[in-house]
Amino acid sequence: MTNRSLLILAGDGIGPEVMAEVRRVVDWFGEKRGVAFEVSEDLVGGCAYEVHGAAISDATMEKAQSVDAVLLGAVGGPQWDGLDFSLKPERGLLRLRKEMDLFANLRPAQCFDALADGSSLKHEVIAGLDIMIVRELTGGMYFGEPRGVTDMNDGTRVGINTHRYTTNEIRRVTRVAFELAKKRGNRLCSMEKSNVMEAGLMWREEVEWVHENEFSDVELSHMLADAGGMQLVRWPKQFDVIVTDNLFGDMLSDVAAMLTGSLGMLPSASLGAPDPNTGRPKALYEPVHGSAPDIAGQGLANPLACILSFAMALRYSFDLGESADMLEKAVSGALAKGARTKDIAQGGAHLSTSEMGDAVLAELNAA
Ligand code: NAD
Q: CATH 3.40.718.10 residue ranges in the chain?
């Protein structure tokens, strides 16, 4: 028996294809390194709707709440596009995020040397890039009340969404970001719009409070979110960890992600509060990409985003930093030797999904 539990929700489209390669990696760590996981698998998204009539069942939700980490593939597909909003595959993902209270979304933007020429930015701007964006995920503009569209009965309408944050919401995500900075380059940059938004000024003040009272040994800077967007494309290597709210984080993390090339390369983690018994945070790990119905079932999907999401689980849920390093090095090594799926091959020869899995396992075996 092991005290590390993992729930795998492969989902729809390419989800099961990329997750099959992750499963081989998970098994490799158990067999070859004695780092075993108690793995269970279940349904989420369209495939769950077909069986349960809902994008995630209550039983699956319960499992997700009880394990140390959930690893998700992707959800969605055109066959479910016509469903009512409450039944759509994406509801499964939203329910997981909401009920597990996953308030901190971690999106690394890391450029593997072998892929530096695939970026739309110049090689020297991007080579060696390794930054982390922490986006607040459960508050702010996407959730604040009041919200909605009101008909003014004079031929016009008013649309309202509310940017709302409490002290607690800002402080808890800021703590996650400071903790990460301590384990990396010891620098945190907070982004908001304190020049035009009262709630932005309060964000800045609360971040400063956490800094002064709990993390004064970490270097803190502030930047207006629009300037931050410019700096991310001008010279991204100036950053180590960035913390920002839900709306700005949505945009800035996508900007940072595309610096490094393909969607098929991007992992993410969403973390909640630490469990009082184990100290492990509630956690969901998933690639940034969707279910890619255009390439599903053809062996063309790049499994590296999902494999790198598992590396994040090793690091942030299981405190297995060395195993995470080893896996990231294996990915980097496979790329350095020329392993490419179609999305990163720039028109050249390419491997299938499982051949990319083979290449990573070969690097692990050689380590
Ligand atoms: P997508 O990320 O699925 O695909 C966008 C493009 O990137 C496609 O051309 C696809 O082939 C390519 N791509 C994505 N992942 C890849 C990989 N691993 N390897 C190689 N190429 C890859 O986004 P989309 O097309 O806008 O959405 C498709 C479906 O996925 C929709 O139903 C959408 O709602 C859903 N979706 C789900 C998630 C999620 O589960 N987290 C996220 C985004 C979209």
A: 1-108+266-367, 130-259
